[in-house]
Specification:
Layout: H1 6-16, H2 20-24, H3 37-49, H4 55-62, H5 67-70, H6 78-85, H7 90-106, E1 117-128, E2 137-140, E3 146-160, E4 163-172, H8 178-193, E5 200-203, H9 210-219, E6 222-226, H10 232-243, E7 249-253, E8 256-266, E9 277-285, E10 291-298, H11 307-331, H12 342-366, H13 377-389
Parallel strand pairs: 1-5, 5-6
Antiparallel strand pairs: 1-3, 2-3, 3-4, 6-10, 7-8, 8-9, 9-10
Helix pairs in contact: 3-4, 3-12, 4-6, 7-12, 8-9
The structure holds zinc ion.
The site of zinc ion has 6 residues, from loops.
Length: 397
């Protein structure tokens, strides 16, 4: 098989993932466009894949001899990227992400996995000292003085088998909240991928609020959420009950021993409209003596989902998801601000999601046919980088 190159990734995105028309017209809002939207969009996506988060880095790439190999039709400056991203409509990129996910599922990307989950997590990006935009939220020192500003957003990713595929983001500014943004995101994802796409929603304790859980019920999805001391009554009730009981289940997981408690008859807190709440507690004993303990709450009835499945869902999902978000932040520059403008920020976050989803489907599904082990992300990056310096005249693909 021919090695991976940026041009081949574009062909894969256009043909296998059905993005041909999106890549050509991604929702350009510029009045007079001298540089084709397709060139700017592909440069932004390749910039993310090559982990060059800054617009200046993309300008350097398309101004170099690598431009042809990148599949970008002409060079341009970072000001063109600013002008373009400040005017690019987010709707076509969100629709492209949803259609890629639906196609991946149809093409059996999640085959062999029992549940396809949706993970939501809040994160911050782009700290700055002054001149806030309308999305900037102030942060304070111990004396409650404003010492700077940063952006907050909630990311949604689809999790299934070995895949973590970022799907959408929802920023929230001052006066807004993480779980309100989470609810908007949940409703939008429900509309874009459909109710049957997702089997469960997995979230951290901050989302374990009645309005968020009700929003999930409304769209037809069950939630698995971390239970922490932000819900003191339920948390204490679960601690009190489980600590006085022997584990309900005990099993080995690799070298670790796991003890599990599970009960589905806890009282909901006052504002939560559930009949009862199911809570699990696990204690994972590592070989070196460390013990990890966590509590999770859910509305999955015991008769629909075993303790063991619920444990696996909560724990592995959480790990995968954290890796997914850390990747986006640390390797793909999600925290870096290219252009401090609310529209540009949102579109760059969405394009980073699309680049990550594209990279994972290409690497873990398309390239990984046959019996050889899957390439790592860093291997694929190196192959892309090497291909940029190779002569491209013979490459007609
Ligand atoms: Zn800002």
């Amino acid at each position: 098989m021919k090695g991976p190159t940026p041009r081949r990734v574009r062909k894969y995105a256009a043909k296998c993932l059905g993005l041909k028309s999106y890549l050509r017209s991604p929702g350009d809002g510029r009045a007079q466009a001298r540089i084709p939207a397709a060139a700017l969009l592909w440069a932004l996506l390749m910039g993310a894949l090559l982990r060059r988060a800054a617009f200046a880095g993309i300008e350097a790439l398309v101004g170099s001899r690598a431009r042809r190999a990148l599949g970008v039709s002409q060079s341009f400056g970072d000001d063109a990227l600013r002008y373009f991203t400040e005017r690019l409509s987010p709707a076509p990129t969100r629709a492209a992400l949803a259609s890629v996910l639906r196609r991946a599922k149809r093409n059996k990307a999640f085959e062999g996995c029992h549940f396809v989950g949706l993970a939501l997590d809040g994160t911050t990006a782009g700290r700055r000292r002054e001149s806030p935009c309308r999305l900037c939220r102030p942060y304070h020192n111990a004396a409650r003085e404003v010492v700077g500003y940063r952006h907050h957003l909630v990311l949604a990713a689809v999790l299934g088998a070995d895949l973590t595929l970022p799907l959408d983001v929802e920023p929230y500014g001052p006066g807004d909240s993480e779980y309100a943004a989470g609810q908007r995101l949940l409703r939008r994802v429900r509309a874009s991928v459909g109710a049957r796409f997702i089997d469960d929603v997995v979230v951290d304790g901050e989302f374990a609020t009645a309005p968020f859980l009700h929003a999930a019920t409304e769209v037809g999805w069950r939630v698995v959420a971390r239970l922490k001391d932000n819900l003191p009554d339920l948390f204490q009730a679960a601690q009190w009950r489980f600590r006085s009981q022997a584990p309900h289940l005990s099993f080995r997981e690799g070298f670790d021993r796991v003890e599990l408690w599970d009960a589905d008859d806890f009282d909901p807190w006052e504002s939560l409209g559930w009949e009862t709440v199911r809570v699990i507690r696990y204690r994972q004993h590592h070989r070196n003596g460390d013990v990890v303990e966590a509590y999770w709450l859910t509305d999955f009835p015991s008769r629909h989902l075993s303790s063991r499945c619920l444990y696996a869902m909560a724990k592995s999902r959480w790990q995968i998801e954290n890796q997914g978000f850390n990747d986006a932040k640390n390797r793909y520059g999600l925290e870096h601000i290219c252009d401090h403008h609310p529209y540009s920020l949102l579109i760059v976050w969405l394009l980073t999601c699309l680049a990550l989803t594209l990279e994972r489907l290409y690497r873990l599904r398309y390239l990984h046919r046959g019996t050889h082990p899957a390439r790592t992300a860093i291997d694929l990056l190196l192959l892309f980088q090497l291909s940029l310096s190779a002569p491209t005249l013979a490459d007609s693909s």
